Amino acid sequence: MRSSNPVFSRRGFSRDNGYAGFNTAPQAGGAAVGTQGSPYAQPAGNPYAQNPYAQTDLQQGAPPQAPATTGRMTIDDVILRTGTTLGTLIVTAALAWALLPVDDANISRSYGIAIVAGLVGMVLALVQSFKRKASPALILSYAALEGVFLGVVSSVVDNRIASGAAMQAVIGTMAVFAAVLVAYKAGWIRVNRRFVGFVMAAALGFILLMAVNLLFAVFGGGDGLGFRSGPLGIVFGIVGILLGACFLALDFKQVEDGLAYGAPREEAWLAAFGLTLTLVWIYMEFLRLISILNSSD
Known about the structure:
The protein is mostly helical.
């Protein structure tokens, strides 16, 4: 699957526009652009430039000149689409919190609705992950359904396990986002092929362990292998948050490359989709970690 996101396989940008691999011919007698700066790059050139084989700025290692069109993605596009996607998620989460009570009389119904919404949202996210182009309708539908799921789960944790847990998880997620953004812009995080390989391998191992733990919990009862409870659960919660932080760095790199190489404006929806997936992952890990810490008191 084509993604740097730990939850769903999302490619950074559309396969058919050539961005993700920069699939143009290498420059004669010199290193291809993208082999140094982007971990996803192939031999190089800019697929959006009017002349992808031009030598301008290539010898200096600078990104090729982007096409002189008005249809290129900008940072404002990314911010607007991300704000729209996250705003949709937050609104439906708030509605689910208010309209789907988790008291003893209603918790089964509310949980059932949340699980269905979460599963349908997962399917929509997977469909978008395999599509060649971004579909705003799919992305916003995913955000709306994921918001319903998060609203109910957050309400359960906040009302039944740890008062204030949802706000703590939101603050923690925001803090991780800000810290990774500052570290990335300062150059403290270098996203290269080795970094990508390590993060993807770690995420795959993490997800497989969680899947095995879930199977043992479903068929054996209790907490499965204990990866999500007690001291071991705390360790895995911290690891999950660190993985989410690493994937934020990959998301920032993909956005930066898209801006540098003149990705089309619609690719901003894919950037918003990826950032939303990663932030949901981090929030859920924080919520789970807070639940474990309060359960052990």
